[in-house]
From TrEMBL:
One of its GO terms (molecular function) is copper ion binding. Belongs to the purine nucleoside phosphorylase YfiH/LACC1 family. It comes from Spirosoma montaniterrae. Coiled coil: none annotated. InterPro entries: Cu_polyphenol_OxRdtase (IPR003730), Cu_polyphenol_OxRdtase_sf (IPR038371), Cytotoxic_necrot_fac-like_cat (IPR011324). The lineage of its organism: Bacteria, Pseudomonadati, Bacteroidota, Cytophagia, Cytophagales. This is Purine nucleoside phosphorylase. The keyword Nucleotide-binding does not apply. It comes from the Bacteria. The keyword Transferase applies. Keywords: Hydrolase, Metal-binding, Transferase, Zinc.
């Protein structure tokens, strides 16, 4: 008899494993009820999927992550750099990063190619969830989020741990010269046979974390790509916009 291997609903970043009171999870596309093209764990409210499917998928995700009793704060994301200090559960609008120090409150962002970034301040017991597309990366949303945590909670970089999650990889993120020009050469690989370039969003956001002072050993990068591992993760680009959304969430469970 062959044992069927069931893919996990989510991954918990290794960097957060030592912290028993911390809930941190990045979903996959497995284990949900949504039909194609949202198959199957679509957690995105702003898709053409049936809302009942998304609600059931979210229930499964939060339950599997051990967060079924926690509140959840998120926002309709606009590819900007605004940061919300969330103090209670709710659906907000216009923010691409959320921070909180409230126990039993998850903050999260939805993604399907953009970079999810989760941050935990182990000293001040505060967290952040960031959605960084190329515009947010260029706009320094990571730096703005960390500065907001410093102002609100007294966060210092040496006590922070960060996870740069699954997103579009450098070899798949091809852009034109107008976008490429906004990135330092360190994070840009130009195609000598065309006007196109390839951007490394993970590396660009890691640089922002280290520029703030977070030690490199306290930063983890996902080994996966939404495009190269499309069987396990949603990719807006690879699936021509007709796809679901993953969720990256973090919070302190009391």
């Amino acid at each position: 008899m062959t044992t069927q291997i069931v893919p996990p609903l989510f991954q918990k970043p290794t960097i957060f494993a030592p912290f028993a009171n911390l809930i941190a999870a990045e979903s996959t596309r497995h284990g949900g009820v949504s039909p194609a093209p949202f198959a199957s764990l679509n957690l995105g409210i702003n898709t053409n999927d049936d809302l009942a499917n998304v609600s059931e998928n979210r229930r499964r995700f939060f339950s599997a992550a051990g967060a079924e009793s926690m509140g959840f704060a998120s926002s309709y994301q606009v590819h900007g750099t605004e940061v919300l200090h969330a103090t209670e559960a709710g659906r907000y609008e216009g923010y691409d990063a959320l921070i909180t120090n409230q126990p039993n409150l998850l903050v999260g962002v939805t993604i399907a190619d953009c970079v999810p970034i989760l941050i935990y301040d182990a000293d001040k017991q505060a967290v952040a969830a960031i959605h960084a597309g190329w515009r947010g990366t260029v706009g320094g949303i990571v730096s703005k989020t960390l500065t907001a945590m410093q102002i609100q909670f007294g966060t210092q970089p040496e006590t922070c741990y960060a996870y740069i999650g699954t997103c579009i990889d450098e070899c798949s993120f091809e852009v034109g010269p107008e976008v490429a020009a906004q990135f330092m050469p360190t994070f840009r690989r130009d195609d000598l046979n065309s006007t196109k370039s390839f951007i490394d969003l993970k590396a660009a956001n890691r640089q922002l974390l280290t520029d703030f002072g977070i030690p490199a050993k306290q930063i983890e990068l996902s080994a996966y790509s939404t495009v190269q591992h499309n069987a396990d993760y949603f990719s807006y680009r690879a699936e021509a916009g007709q796809t679901g959304r993953m969720l990256a969430a973090i919070g302190i469970k009391k």
